[in-house]
């Protein structure tokens, strides 16, 4: 009796078990990241840099969508450090995001912190980097997210996948460089070279032997995962005699489009397919700066790696063959940067709200503080100090607590929630000469509160104060759609007609056009405190940042979890 009625239940249970065994469970990847000083030789000299596990670039993390990462960061260096998992949505794991004094206090020398988070709904290339002072100059690595088991890429499976990380090399200690600039109020020095996977390449002294090689087979299609990890330069990238088909940016797929040149801003990633359809020899991948600011110093070097066809041919093949050199756009070729940005679209029609709950307008740009008695003032005219702001607020990071901790425990006096929704004074933002009265922002720690689930439409407007410049604006904890971009002052009446509500690209970092604007939109579905900032490190240091405070929704799944027990405190 009992057996006959329980049979269907038992059968169901067994089938569920079989299914569960067949579908491989989401994995938990455990890693140990030891932050430490490491000797390396670059540009003819030995240097002591800060690395993770002695590797430069640091370890590549490879996961599938749905997996969990558990990374124990142990600080054996002499500096405070935090690690940020750039582009990871961190849904309900805001304590693992990493920016110093925003979601945690720094990990002190000798201490450790375990970052634990799950990757949901994101596939492609992201990366991780230090989010403390200028340590990310050498503390960075790739974070590759493949589709879950049994799910394919939305393009033919490439026969080879190669992370190509663009960086900046400094002969000086980058932490000293920014400390000196903060002391004097002047602009920091620029890098001495760019790097590909940590190597400056053939065009720089004492670098030829170590130039990054990318071996390929004739006829195959490779997926190159470009990451711009440079501190302060946007970069053009080309490959000699090869077209690139862009298939993803910032771990969101794109409508494939073919191009000779990429423009990648710091914080951004670009996945491209390259078919090795040229005569089997050697070709340079090269990158150099896109510089939109006027009258500022920049690193004018070119970094290179070499794509080496394995032709199975031949004596004489190999290092003796001089690789073909690609044409790169001029340093100030804004048209090339604009054309590239215009090519990036979501693969299909996406769900974009045609109205928002919050209409925000933030100016982004530089500024100057007047010299106060007792200060060094190495800014323009030797009587100013450089600064930067959003909506005339120059962001000041707290020192005694992190913003998220202060929010969770309602600690008063750490921040205020009155970041302005609009510029306090409206003016001709992109005029040739903005009145000097408008150049001096107000230093403060202001957050903008967002109701859980609200649709946020945000205009980011560059200003010409000091100099107009393309600013790569990055939001933590969110991807957003870029509805439109343009030049001049954003005009609501006219420019709304340019909005793409069909297949706008989805990103975590938008390169706001020089003397122009970008309109982005996202749904505030992730409670926490989320930093938004310029990803040129010199600008975030000067205050080109703010943070959103996304309130809890209803119920446990829409609320902030308590902090992990090992969350570093400021003490
Ligand atoms: Cu900037």
TrEMBL record:
Signal peptide location? 1-25
Name of one Pfam family that matches: Cu-oxidase_2
Which terms under GO biological process does the entry name? lignin catabolic process
Q: Which reaction does it catalyse?
A: 4 hydroquinone + O2 = 4 benzosemiquinone + 2 H2O
According to its UniProt record, the EC number is 1.10.3.2
GO CC terms, sorted: apoplast
* Alphabetically ordered keywords of this record: Apoplast, Copper, Lignin degradation, Metal-binding, Oxidoreductase, Repeat, Secreted, Signal
Location comes to: Secreted, Extracellular space, Apoplast
GO MF term list: copper ion binding; hydroquinone:oxygen oxidoreductase activity
The top EC class, named as a word, is oxidoreductase
Is Methyltransferase set as a keyword in this record?
Answer: no
Tell me the PROSITE patterns matching this sequence: MULTICOPPER_OXIDASE1 (PS00079), MULTICOPPER_OXIDASE2 (PS00080)
Plastocyanin-like domain location, by residue? 35-149, 161-311, 419-552
Q: What is its main location?
A: secreted
The free-text function statement in the UniProt record for this protein reads: Lignin degradation and detoxification of lignin-derived products.
**NCBIfam families in alphabetical order:** laccase (TIGR03389)
Which PANTHER family has this protein been placed in? LACCASE-5 (PTHR11709:SF431), MULTI-COPPER OXIDASE (PTHR11709)
Family named by the database record = Belongs to the multicopper oxidase family.
Query: What name does the UniProt record give this protein?
Result: Laccase
Q: What is the species of this protein?
A: Eleusine coracana subsp. coracana
């Amino acid at each position: 009796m009992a057996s006959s009625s329980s049979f269907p239940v038992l059968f169901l249970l067994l089938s569920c078990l079989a299914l569960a065994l067949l579908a491989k469970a989401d994995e938990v990847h455990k890693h140990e990241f030891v932050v430490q000083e490491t000797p390396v030789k670059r540009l003819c000299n030995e240097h002591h840099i800060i690395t993770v596990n002695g590797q430069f670039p640091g370890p590549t993390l490879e996961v599938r969508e749905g997996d969990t990462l558990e990374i124990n960061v142990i600080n054996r260096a002499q500096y405070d450090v935090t690690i940020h998992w750039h582009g990871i949505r961190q849904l309900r794991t805001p304590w693992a995001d990493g920016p110093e004094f925003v979601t945690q206090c720094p990990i002190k020398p000798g201490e450790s912190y375990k970052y634990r988070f799950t990757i949901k709904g994101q596939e492609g290339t992201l990366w991780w980097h230090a989010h403390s002072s200028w340590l990310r100059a050498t503390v960075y690595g790739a974070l590759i997210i493949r589709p879950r088991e049994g799910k394919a890429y939305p393009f033919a499976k490439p026969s080879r996948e190669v992370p190509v990380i663009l960086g900046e090399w400094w002969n000086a200690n980058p932490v000293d460089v920014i400390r000196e600039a903060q002391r004097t109020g002047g602009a920091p020095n620029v890098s001495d070279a760019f790097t590909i996977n940590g190597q400056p390449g053939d065009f720089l002294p004492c670098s030829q032997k170590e130039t990054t090689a990318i071996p390929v087979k004739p006829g195959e299609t490779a997926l190159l995962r470009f990451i711009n990890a440079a501190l302060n330069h946007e970069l053009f990238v080309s490959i000699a005699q090869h077209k690139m088909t862009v298939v993803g940016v910032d771990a969101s797929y794109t409508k494939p489009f073919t191009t000779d040149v990429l423009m990648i801003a710091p914080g951004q990633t670009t996945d491209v397919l390259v078919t090795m359809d040229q005569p089997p020899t050697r070709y340079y991948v090269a990158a150099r700066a896109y510089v939109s600011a006027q009258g500022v110093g920049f690193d004018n070097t070119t970094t290179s790696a070499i794509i080496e066809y394995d032709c199975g041919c031949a004596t004489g093949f190999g290092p003796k063959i001089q690789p073909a050199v690609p044409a790169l756009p001029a340093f100030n070729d804004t048209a090339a940067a604009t054309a590239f940005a215009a090519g990036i679209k979501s693969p299909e029609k996406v769900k974009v709200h045609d109205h928002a709950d919050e209409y925000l307008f933030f100016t982004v740009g530089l500024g100057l503080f007047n010299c106060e008695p007792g200060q060094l003032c190495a800014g323009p005219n030797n009587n100013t100090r450089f600064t930067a702001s959003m909506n005339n607020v120059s962001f000041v990071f707290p020192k005694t607590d992190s913003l998220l901790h202060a929010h969770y425990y309602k600690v008063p006096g750490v921040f205020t929630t009155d970041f302005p929704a609009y510029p306090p004074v409206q003016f001709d933002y992109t005029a040739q000469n903005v009145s000097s009265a408008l150049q001096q922002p107000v230093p403060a720690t202001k957050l903008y509160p967002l109701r859980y689930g609200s649709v946020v439409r945000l205009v980011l407007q560059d200003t010409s104060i000091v100099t107009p410049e393309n600013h790569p604006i990055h939001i933590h904890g969110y991807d957003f759609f870029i509805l439109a971009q343009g030049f001049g002052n954003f005009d609501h009446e006219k420019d709304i007609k340019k909005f793409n509500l069909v297949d706008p690209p989805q990103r975590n970092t938008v390169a706001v056009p020089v003397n122009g604007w970008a309109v982005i939109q996202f749904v505030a579905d992730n409670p926490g405190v989320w930093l938004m900032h310029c990803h040129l490190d010199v600008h975030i240091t000067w205050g080109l940042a703010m943070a959103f405070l996304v309130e809890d929704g209803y119920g446990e799944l829409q609320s902030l979890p308590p902090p992990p027990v090992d969350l570093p405190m400021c003490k």
